[in-house]
UniProtKB/TrEMBL annotation:
Main location class: cytoplasm
Descriptive protein name: Acetylornithine aminotransferase
Quaternary state and interactors: Homodimer.
Cellular localization per UniProt: Cytoplasm
Matching Gene3D superfamilies: Aspartate Aminotransferase, domain 1 (3.90.1150.10), Type I PLP-dependent aspartate aminotransferase-like (Major domain) (3.40.640.10)
Biological or metabolic pathway of the protein: Amino-acid biosynthesis; L-arginine biosynthesis; N(2)-acetyl-L-ornithine from L-glutamate: step 4/4
Cofactor(s) for this UniProt protein: pyridoxal 5'-phosphate
Record-level GO cellular component terms: cytoplasm
InterPro entries: AcOrn/SuccOrn_fam (IPR004636), Aminotrans_3 (IPR005814), Aminotrans_3_PPA_site (IPR049704), Class-III_PLP-dep_AT (IPR050103), PyrdxlP-dep_Trfase (IPR015424), PyrdxlP-dep_Trfase_major (IPR015421), PyrdxlP-dep_Trfase_small (IPR015422)
Catalytic activity: N(2)-acetyl-L-ornithine + 2-oxoglutarate = N-acetyl-L-glutamate 5-semialdehyde + L-glutamate
UniProt enzyme class: transferase
């Protein structure tokens, strides 16, 4: 089958695919329609946390499919309760709302922040401050919260009430907190923006400033969360406590899911009818999340993620390749800053059996499954070395 021809015939032209069709996963590798095997450093853009074919995940999903696929939230859902309890205990926040994606979770977080402010202060205090080079999703409010103008073209008019400041610039943030702002929204590591970890001093100062002014802190952990950075949450690297946290991607192990976590200030803000989702909390997706949470929070698992991230950094830096300017990130969320074009390296790696991502024209992004082995890392990077 000519996959490209069929795709172009039936699908909108929104994606620039690499020229292979993946049909099977084994462990931390993927296999294409021609039978070629690839070491995966993408995990479906940070989604397949446990790789492919994890027995615990397969059994949980198969058992749940045999029992029940969907009921909606007009009934109690034991699987959602199971996953929700595990997530709250792992996060140390107070309440959860389950959605279907990161964009949905971020839209809900914006609503939650604005309602908190409206309930307490009334109108005129609904602005969201986010950071330049951020990415928060492709639905309208989440897209407007995204601090990259290139994503805003063509889709006007946007919802009002969004402003941007440079990352790591506390003075710029102070200028915006003028009594019209309800929340500051940030990623611990800007993924789509180039894999840039925020400075610890900026994050701590920003959170302290927000607490002083009763401005909520929202951490978008859609890409950073659920163990990806070598901590359960990316913000844990800064030892701060946000008011709202969003999750998606790796939480479901491959199934569509999103989550909004609320802290002490925001746990009681939403009342019946304020927010909802037909598919959110779907039993199959939540069974996936429940299994992922069991594995990721098991003893030593996240420590191993951190170690594997350091191994990747050390190996790449040890290559001393002139074309590599910098390796940055935390855990298994890493960006390689290049002298040349990241797309060129990605295509060379693909031809040699290594799957990678890009994060802009000059950054190669690595988001392997959290279960990738040291042997697979070493083998994959030896091949990748030839592609720079």
């Amino acid at each position: 089958m000519d996959f490209k021809e069929k795709w172009n015939e039936f699908f909108m032209d929104t994606y620039g695919q690499l020229p292979i069709a993946l049909v099977k996963g084994e462990g931390n590798c993927l296999i294409d329609s021609e039978g070629k095997k690839y070491i995966d450093f993408t995990s479906g853009i940070g989604v397949s946390s446990l790789g492919y074919g994890n027995e615990q995940l397969k059994k949980g999903l198969k058992d749940q499919i045999d029992l029940l696929l969907h009921t909606s939230n007009i009934f109690f859902n034991p699987v959602a309760i199971e996953a929700g309890e595990k997530l709250i205990k792992a996060s140390k926040l107070k309440k959860v709302f389950f959605a279907n994606s990161g964009a949905e979770a971020n839209e809900g977080a914006i609503k939650l922040a604005r309602k908190y402010s409206f309930d307490k202060y009334g109108e005129g205090r609904g602005k969201i401050v986010s950071l330049k080079q951020s990415f928060h999703g492709r639905t309208l409010a989440a897209l407007k919260a995204t601090g990259q103008e290139k994503f805003h073209n063509y889709f006007f008019p946007f919802p009002e009430g969004f402003v941007y400041v440079e990352k790591n610039n506390i003075e710029a943030l102070k200028e915006q907190l003028d009594g019209t702002v309800c929340a500051v929204m940030m990623e611990a590591i800007q993924g789509e923006g180039g894999v840039y970890p925020l400075d610890e001093s900026f994050v701590k100062d920003a959170v302290a400033l927000c607490k002083e002014k009763d401005v909520l802190v929202i951490f978008d952990e859609v890409q950073c969360g659920v163990g990806r950075t070598g901590k359960f949450f990316g913000f844990e690297h800064f030892n701060v406590e946000p008011d709202i946290v969003t999750l998606a991607k790796g939480l479901g192990g491959g199934l569509p899911i999103g989550a909004i976590l609320a802290g002490e200030k925001t746990a009681g803000v939403f009342k019946k009818g304020d927010h909802g989702s037909t598919f959110g909390g779907n039993p199959v997706a939540l069974k996936g999340a429940s299994v992922v949470l069991d594995v990721v929070t098991s003893e030593g698992f996240i420590d191993e993620v951190a170690k594997k991230g350091e191994l990747i950094k050390n190996i790449i830096e040890g290559f001393n390749i002139p074309a590599v300017k910098e390796v940055r990130g935390k855990g298994l969320m890493l960006g390689i800053e290049l002298e040349g074009e990241s797309k060129d390296v990605q295509e060379k790696a693909l031809a040699k059996g290594i799957l990678t991502l890009t994060a802009g024209a000059k950054v190669l992004r690595l988001l392997p499954p959290l279960t990738i082995t040291e042997e697979e890392i070493k083998a994959g990077l030896e091949v990748l070395k030839e592609c720079f």
